[in-house]
Every structure is written in C-alpha cells, then in structure tokens.
C-alpha cells in the first residue's frame, strides 16, 4: 500500500511540475509590431461621406416583390462620384444585378490577388420600432462623435472604409505590386446567392486563385471579458448553416374531440426532444486558439487553466457552456425559430410545422446534422425537410501559423498598438464562405473598436459607429493594402 501511495504522490508531483512549468513558460503569440505612422485622415470629411451613404435605403428582402432597386443604383453612383481617384485607378464590373467587383491591377500579374470584401445591403428596420431610434435609421446623422444609421456597423462602413483607403493611395500615386480586388455584395443579408456567389463563380471561371480574402466578421472588443486589454477577434472559420422544417399531419376537426396527440403535439414533442438533446460540446480550433492567444494576458489562475487545456478541458467546456454566448462557440446550436398550427383556437390543425435553425461547428456536416435530428426525434410521423436555400457546411479553418495571418496580425498591431490579436469562430454567416474554393486564407475581421454595449445596434436599434474608430479603420485598410500588396 505504501508503494502505491508513493507512486500516486510521485505522479501528482509530476503533474504539478508540468502544470506550473507550462504556465510559467507560456509564450506570447502576438506579432512584434511597431506603431505605424498615422496617415492623415480628414475626420469630418470621411464621417460626412459615411453618413451620406447611410441615407440610401439599400434594404435586402427575402421576398423579391419588396425590393426597390433604385436605392442600389443611386448608392453605386454615389460611390463612383465620391471616390474619383479610386475609380480612375480600378476597373469596375456589375455582377448579379447590383454587386460590384473592382480590379486594381498589380505590377506583377504572377502574384495571386488580395481580395477585400464588404456588403452594402442592410436589414430592414422592424416595423413599429422606428421611434425607438435616437436618430432616424436612414437619416445619416452625425452627433456625439458617432455616425448613426442602419449600415453604420453592418456593413457600409466596410465598403466606405476600403474605398477611402484605396482613394487615398491612388491619389498618392501608389501602384500595388499584387493585384487588389474589391468585392461589394448587395444581398449578403439574405445569403449572397446573387452577389458574392456569382462573383466567386466568375473569378473561378477566370482561373483566379486568391492569396488572401478579408471579409467582415470579428471586431476589436475593448471589453471582451477575456482579458483587460482590447482584443481584435479575427475569424479564422465560420459555422455552417442549416434550417429544417418539421411537419406533422393530422385529421383536423373540432378541438372538443381531440385525438391522443394532435399534429401540434407531435411537433411540440419533436422540438422538445431536439432541445433536450443538444449537440456535444467540443474544445477545438478556432475557439481553442482564441484562448491560447489571450492566455498570456490573463490573471494567474486563468493563465494556468488555459496553458494546461490538456488537463482542464472538462472545466473549460463547463464554464463556456454556462453562458449561451460562449456555448455557441463549442457546439452545433439548435434554435427553434418558427411554429405554425391551426388558425383558430378551437380547430385541430391538419398540418403543424416548426422550423429549427442549426449553426454547425467545424467538424460537423449538414448531412450529419440531418441524420442526428432524425435519430433524436425518432418519430415517423414527423417529416423533416431542408429549407432556406443556402444550407452550408462549416468553413475550413484558415491557418494562423503562416506569413499571411502574421501579416494581418502585424497590420492590426501597427494601427492598434495596445490591442491583442486572437483567432476566433464566427458564429454567424458571411459572404466569405462563397470564396472558400479560391483561397486557403480566408479571414473575417472588421477593423473597428466597438464596445459590447453598441453591438445591440447590429440588426437592432440605434446602430452607430464612433468616428474615431472609423478613421483608424481607414488607416488599417490603407496599411493592409501596402503590407499585403507590396
């Protein structure tokens, strides 16, 4: 017995030594970047141009009959008339009706191009909430150091910021060595099937492989809750997307004489079974990379845990699962979003339906999710069909241990010197997924520092962007083009 206790004590001592050693020797993965010279940006002029862009009601609707094409035409004319140096230096193509593809031809045609992306369509303002806005959602108001309006964050600021940077460089006589492509979609909010998908197909048809793709995604979070310093979240992957319709049929009839289980009851049980059987949690890249990159700046206890994820993985998963925001980073999520039964309270439904939306963790697949849903529901009365038109598998995970990510991270450090860079998983969907076949280096990052209190404006009320961070975002795009195109 003494020998056994001695072996246990020795093993524990080894574990303690390994844990302490890994914690103490944990190296920073942050790039060694010196603050770049701050390019001169006219704050008033750029904020006024952004504000004017928000006045165009470029709203994308799922229903074609609701579309108004004139605001899209007017917005494109506004870009051409505003950024004259950029438009003289680049060719411009109209794709899919309203999306834009710009080409800034490089001096070396052998180098694969850099692609910068954004979209200029916006979501509608929910009816009945217009008066909740401090300023009209399409007013393009500048006040209190902010530009207010729908699209300020999502994502006209990306379109305008990129073009501001290109216009500056073109006016300075800059000629990129590597070709620079700009792709501005018009239907990202409803899947990008006519915009980004068609641009990507055109580039593939032309045999173009891309060196790097940069789209919207992560932001700079000054209050991420991970560490005390601002964190620039660079999406190295995004979750997949799938919506399934669950449908059950019944005989109908009067509610005073119901069967043991109505069609609505069958659907209710199916939905409950799905929510009661969540997908398993997994601690994998890029969520694992997020905490590896930020661990050196954590407090000692947190640093010990994340430096030794091999030992504390169950604890980490339990902690992340406790909050629905972080839980989405470690599993494929299940979200019932729509329910339909009878149109009258005393009539049994002949057909009852539910729609369940899934966001797929890298490693899962659309076919695998469908199979699991069928298994969990385990009811032949429930018909399961895919809806939505753009169910997609999760994206591949772009690398972080190569020169491309290093150049991106270095550029962030040059413009935002007090910020830490970290990979992360984008839980929503972006247009960048359409470009995955064209590049192994697809990243998702919008270079604006946005406190968590302002994130409610994304698809919500009082969307706004601070002028100070917008001007730094323009500097970022300018510097990125210089670093990656030269």
Q: Could you explain the architecture of this structure?
A:
- The structure is a single chain.
- With 486 residues, the chain is an alpha/beta fold.
- It has two domains: 43-238 and 394-485, Zn peptidases (Aminopeptidase), CATH 3.40.630; 240-392, Alpha-Beta Plaits (2-Layer Sandwich).
- Helix content is 35%, strand content 21%.
- The strands form three sheets. Strands 1, 2, 3, 6, 7, 8, 13 and 14 form an eight-stranded mixed sheet that branches. The chain has a four-stranded antiparallel sheet with strand order 10-11-9-12, with helices on one face.
- The longest helix has 23 residues, at 2-24.
- The radius of gyration is 25 Å and the shape is globular.
Q: Please identify the structural class as seen in this structure.
A: alpha/beta
What portion of the residues fall into strands of 2 or more residues?
15-25%
- The CATH class of the largest domain is Alpha Beta
The strand count comes to 15
H/E element sequence: HHHHEEEEEHEHEEEHHHHHEEHEHEEEH
Residue windows where pLDDT falls under 50 for at least 5 positions: none
CA-atom Rg in angstroms: 25 Å
Largest sheet: 8 strands, mixed
How far do the termini sit from each other? 69 Å
